[in-house]
Request: fold
Amino acid sequence: MLHTNNQIIKHKVGLLNLAEELQNVSRACKVMGVSRDTFYRYQELVKSGDIDALINKSRRKRPLNPMPIF
Reply:
């Protein structure tokens, strides 16, 4: 069972833990509203790195000088 205090990855870790608890990936994904493909992607990230690998890494770069909105 994985543990984390990071709010960003709590949902993802919850999915992995639920699948382990239920012994059924399909059911855990249905309960959490996530595809099985997403589950296996999360699982692979944890296996390849650590739990911090679940943090979203956006491909989009933030603008250096965002335009003010009036």
Observations:
- Helices lie at 10-22, 25-32, 36-48.
- Residues 10-22 form the longest helix (13 residues).
- Residues 10-50 form one domain.
